[in-house]
Amino acid sequence: MKERVIELRRTSLETQPSISIERSRLITEAYRKYEGTVSVPVLRALAFKHLLEHKTICINPGELIVGERGESPQSTPLYPELCCHSLADLEIINNREKISFKVSPEVKAIQEKEIIPFWQERSIRTKIFKEMTPEWLDCYQAGLFTEFMEQRAPGHTVADHKIYQQGFLDFKREIKEELARLDFYDDPEAYEKQEELKAMLICADALIRFAERYAEKAEELAASETDPVRKEELLKIAAGCSHIPGHKPRDFQEALQMYWFVHLGVITELNTWDSFNPGRLDQHLLPFYQDGLAAGTLTREKAQELLQCFWIKFNNQPAPPKVGITLQESGTYTDFANINNGGLRADGSDGVNEVSYLILDVIDEMRLLQPSTNIQLSKKNPNRFLKRALGIIKKGWGQPSVFNADQVINEMLRQGKTIEDARCGGTSGCVETGAFGKESYILTGYFNLTKVLEITLHDGVDPRTGKKIGLTTGDPAKFKSFDQLMVAFQQQLHHFIDIKIRGNNVIEKLYSNYMPAPFLSIIISDCIKKGKDYNAGGARYNTNYIQGVGIGSITDSLAALKYHVFDQHNQTWPDFLKILEQDFAGHEDFRQILLNKTPKYGNDDLYADSIMTAVFDRFYDQVNGRKNMKGGYYRINMLPTTCHVYFGSVIGATPDGRKAGLPLSEGISPVQGADRSGPTAVIKSAARMDQVRTGGTLLNQKFTPKLLADEKGLNSLLHLIRAYFKLDGHHIQFNVIDAATLRQAQAEPENYRSLIVRVAGYSDYFNNLSKDLQDEIIARTEQTLLQ
Amino acid sequence: MKTANIFNIQRYSIHDGPGIRTTVFFKGCPLNCWWCHNPESQATTQELLFDQERCLGCGNCLRNCPVGAIELVDGKALRAKSKCDICGQCIQSCPVSAVELVGQIMTVEEVIEETEKDLLFYEESGGGVTCSGGEPLLQADFLTLLADYYQQAEIELAVDTCGQIAWEKLGRLAPKIALFLYDLKFIDSEKHQQYTGVGNQLILANLAKLAAANCRIIARIPLIPGINDHISNIKEIGQFLTELNIKDVNLLPYHRAGVDKYQRLGKEYKLSECEDLSEERLAQLVGILEKLGLNTKIGG
Asked: What is this structure's pTM?
């Protein structure tokens, strides 16, 4: 690693995240100036322009790729039009032990005097909570589901190749052509389209101006720079910033800078979920890499250094602060940029290239949380590629994760995408499948499957509050068969999914009416062609997800009820329910039987696994294929981020032996410690879920370092992954660490500051995790070497 | 119906032959090695393992014991071995699986069903099934039935043997076995007698015959510090293998993993003082074997 990268990396890692109030002031100024005088899309565009014309320009010493979201590295803006933080919120954000941001007294004063009075009643968050029904609010409070859009905007999308082949002047030409084509005689939406297209033009110009400001700053710095080498670098940056983003990039460095300006545009316009993401970076960069090498203007080392500088930019931007339930579902600084590597090309051929290996080297050396990285592993990719990735995975910090590229493509085909669009897509966020550059694939909220069972067991009542929020499906003590229980569960599930989707449909409209994203719309096909905003259905594909959480916990709970009440008859309904109400107090022996002598998902045991598929099928049937407000459909996926901890905290003791309040299982992984038949059994159980019907599943495995210590261990892991993917598994990721080390890290956090672990679809510093989440990771089954 | 006494079936075994394998552990062994890390494998009969650490002291087992062989001592279940007839009632009643029955009487079909679960993984990795123990050839009839099945099912079968078995049995089975993992401890028969309970004449003779019959063999040498890790012993083993034209050898360094099982079984552990093998010594021994032209690997 070169000295400059070491320094940039150090600054990125050692700077405490802080709140910048600059964006809040600028957006308020813009709204005061324009609101009411122009259409909403144009208002948003003018506000965007105002931001990019006035926000601080920051070029850090030594860096080759420039641009920050805030005023400096780790300085993070707020988005009061989405979520207007109260002073108490800022206090919490400043003081909380984990995921804190420094809030200066000046920031607080401005928030109080300028921001809160203007935004409190106008923010999307306030609008959402005003518009939701009492049933929705009850369910939200009870922890049935979360709501992604209450603090952050829809985003959940990824760039494709177009920004490397066209500049924003080219996009402007396309936009103008569409404007010229508008039919005000026969198209009742012509006016809306005109306003949206006008807004896009303003945004394109704004980004070009923003880059020019960087060019001016670089020239200014170059003029006073005494080191001739750095001077040259600054002039090169300046030349790049005045060429792109108006025009397409000419070389490797400009390609990276082009993406980075687009990234900053997206995350400045709105606080989009999963920030933004370059997607299939190895595919996009290959032509620039090859041309540079051929022309003698680039070397592998130089390309590696540029990529490292690029990596730093991601790590400099923590996810803007979250509060309340949204913090609980996603308690991390990580902002989920997740770079894809490998996979297939549009023509179906092997996509692994020289840049894929280069990127793996960069991941290995940089060891950063952001950007997160994955490999898209196709059966057509060589084992050498997977082996190189495993060489990094074995180091134990959770990256890269491994996706089944062929299955990801199949999932998209099942949803009706074209084969080319599918092959040019991949996965983002944690594990979410998407057609990059062409799809809005929104995660709308986590859904607490296990809580639905708890409410079913209490005939519609939430035992935590005594409030009736579900349907009356009958006293379970009177159920004659397990099937009767499943029918009741299905009815409750239907009821709660209905409530969730009704809320979603209103929230979607709030965003399309009040928070269009004309900048993002420029780069996502087919928003220009349709003259429609990204948040209003402009994308070629529009998918809404509801993410199921706790499939392992609910499966084991149902398996325990079936086994002990209906099959073995060694426990009656009323007794079982009473034991749960008492949180197993005085019944530790029965709890141990539940833990040790009851069928569990994750052991290649059909008794439990068939219950898992039954729950999965019901969840799928309730959600899949419902229409959203953007002309697309609802789908399911199975991932938790940190929500399994929160969802567990609102559920009492469960029939699988889990005590009240403890975390649920995560992703499609078995309950922590329940899988005792080795990794092949876990894989076979997980593969019984028909994963092609999802838009992503998440499987965590914990291996001890010993199991991967030698060549044989590593090769066996390679075969294990290939076998899982033959069985149509979507994704697998690994923590390579032993529980003893984690326990020690918990006891002496000061000695383990740099310890990174895999959580659920992302990595994080162990010290940044809540105690509950730390315990949950420690409790995960450890696959170890047999003696 | 043919049955065998099997004490474990372990999936994702990656150090008992090539690829990902399932290892079937047969109970009963003609040897009694001091360092054995599976002491529960030695007796041919079923046994009970009592884990004092797991025991909750709930007393379920003693209430369920028909012969009164269990009592609570300091809040932990303690079994009088002499009274116990291994009926297994205590296992059923124990909520935490602190009592474990070592040795399941299994049919050929049951073993096949369990070992076929990971077929895909064998195919993917070039793995298969390994029969180990104990000594699988002590239950040779059963092993033959398994071998016949795997042969027609095209599943590669490896057998991990100590070699202390009549040639009549071993020779008959040999053509059905894709790979032998053949354990060698000493060339000196007296030492062998001292530390394993039997001399090694039959073991060495059997190995020679298998080699002559062109069987695929990987020799496996457990390395026990101070007992058989002497340069002379390893050199002699290496020379013996070279003479038989056996090319592959695995070194299995001593570890203390099985020690607590002795206590749970109520058995004495004679190697309590033994330390781990040093890296230097291991490298030295690898060097000796490689110099003789043997492909030498550490671990299985």
From this structure: 0.95
